[in-house]
């Protein structure tokens, strides 16, 4: 939709398997945006990057219905599908659970494991669903733009990749959690998961030479609030990880709120305007160990919950 419709950017926080929730939400949000808004941008980190890039590719190549189908297809492919994958999945989940309970589990560096099975699996997943050779022509038709985040572990700087600068390697880098994947080399520097940088990129919606949104919709995976005080080591570790996952997001949103204050005060040129921030959250709490869970029933449940939450969200803002 174009013209004078309100413009929207959608930011997808990372969170491993939990971002199947994001895929479900995008399945509902994209057709609604196409009908009533002007979509100017998508962003994501880690699993959120996978969702954002898949949605962008499907949307620009064939429209919102195709994007929704592609999100379903990708996450169906993420789910464990054979006895070998189920065995590996269960072992990873239980290992993570025991670590959360502070059991003495031997640590194994991904560099000590022969080959790059995890990275190869992820690159194969991308290759089956997305033709990155099309990105040059798709980028010429934007908006919407798409941006994903990673961290340059050598320089310690946050790094973002947009539109035709996105490759399978940049999407892999955005998801390269250092205890599971080896770092990804790009331009003679090594990169880790964007969870350590911008989770997800947000301020690029305002600072780049692009159409700026009237509204920012944030699909937030990590719980913002917590009831009571965590007392066990597992609870403390769990909450610490949740807070870490939200630090960069809250900093980015604080930046936007500061710009909003400057707009209201008349300190900025007319090209800047108030950006309404709206949240769509994964309400039910899950343990960090379930972020590596690829059980098909778990993935399907998250997809369905994302769709329901998006329907409720759209009803609230209507």
Automatic annotation (TrEMBL):
Pfam families: Patatin. It comes from the Archaea. SUPFAM superfamilies: FabD/lysophospholipase-like. It comes from Haloarcula marismortui (strain ATCC 43049 / DSM 3752 / JCM 8966 / VKM B-1809) (Halobacterium marismortui). The keyword Lipid metabolism applies. Keywords: Lipid metabolism. The keyword Lipid metabolism applies. Residues 10-206 form the PNPLA domain. PROSITE patterns: PNPLA (PS51635). One of its GO terms (biological process) is lipid metabolic process. This is Patatin-like phospholipase.
